[in-house]
Design a protein that fits this description.
mainly alpha; Farnesyl Diphosphate Synthase; two-stranded antiparallel ribbon; 73% helix; binds geranylgeranyl diphosphate
Length: 292
């Protein structure tokens, strides 16, 4: 398998899906829809939607049945980035190599664009699948995006910034909820579209948690070792903000080791499905070796 070619194909599918399933920029109010598309179309690695498509393909879904689910996940992810960049949160001005949404437009427009992307994700699931499948997809994505996962992880992250003695356990909680939950939901949503068994969904969730942890640890390593031009977002922010990161708590070498261990665990968990997981395994390797 040619991993680079396959990744390119999957990313192109995601981008076509975004174009197809998100209102056009000139839909009234055009400023809002332009802002939604501005952030969505800025690129990014498209990891989460590609995981949805690739997981669905493992279960025999080769046509575009999983595309609305993939776009829904990317809408939720993009909303979280827009809100995270706002002055009341991380106050950042660079994202995906472009000015952040509130810099390009204004704070109120960025806030509304994030709100609208979040809502659109669930609308897309509800209208694109039969009621039973839609229900399972909505429940899975809502759980991962809600107060006990993404939003809760973000809350704990903000709280940890204010306390001097955030622990390794606090950090694991933040990583598992802020980052790994949506990655885990991406795998599971692909499995749901592919009508995976409950046992297989459990393996998909588990592999997603393991990949999510590895991904966030690498993110911490890159923040400490790379530069803004390469990352397309501000580098060195964590140390500057005195943030408790994996690198701060465990050091660079141990962080890299734990990331590698979690990547290997994710590959082993996927192996339990007994399906062709070569593309996803190569994707896991490429995420472990990524430079942005
Ligand atoms: C505001 C509810 C709310 C949540 C914000 C996503 C997030 C939570 C914060 C962004 C900052 C951050 C380091 C989050 C951890 C997850 C992460 C590494 C996000 C960036 O994902 P990538 O690298 O981004 O896949 P691209 O742009 O490539 O899609």
């Amino acid at each position: 398998m040619d991993f680079a070619a396959e990744m390119k194909r999957q990313v192109a599918r995601v981008e076509r899906g975004i174009d197809l399933h998100v209102p056009r920029a000139d839909t009234r109010p055009a400023r809002l829809h332009t802002a939604m598309r501005y952030s969505l179309e800025a690129g990014g690695k498209r990891l989460r939607p590609v995981l949805v498509l690739a997981a669905a393909e493992m279960f025999g879904v080769t046509e575009d049945a999983a595309l609305p689910a993939a776009v829904a996940v990317e809408c939720v992810h993009t909303y979280s980035l827009i809100h995270d960049d706002l002055p009341c949160m991380d106050n950042d001005d660079l994202r995906r190599g472009r000015p952040t949404a509130h810099k390009q437009f204004d704070e109120a427009t960025a806030l509304l664009a994030g709100d609208a992307l979040l809502t659109h994700a669930f609308s897309l699931l509800a209208i694109s699948y039969d009621p039973k499948m839609a229900n399972r997809l909505v429940a899975t994505l809502a759980a991962a995006a809600g107060s006990q996962c993404l939003v809760g992880g973000q809350m704990e992250d903000l709280l940890a910034e204010r306390k001097a003695n955030a622990t390794a356990e606090d950090l694991d909680f933040i990583h598992l909820n802020k980052t790994a939950a949506i990655i885990s939901a991406s795998f599971a949503m692909g499995g749901i579209v592919g009508e995976a068994t409950d046992e297989d969904l459990m393996f998909l969730h588990e592999a997603g948690r393991q990949l999510g942890l590895a991904f966030q640890i690498i993110d911490d390593v890159l923040d400490a070792t790379s530069d803004s031009a390469t990352l397309g977002k501000t580098a060195g922010k964590d140390a500057k903000a005195g943030k408790t990161t994996y690198v701060k708590v465990h050091g660079l070498a141990a962080s890299r080791r734990v990331a590698e261990e979690n990547s290997q665990r994710a590959r082993a968990t996927l192996g339990k499905l007994g399906r062709d997981s070569r593309f996803i395994e190569a994707l896991i390797d490429s995420m472990a070796a990524r430079t942005k």
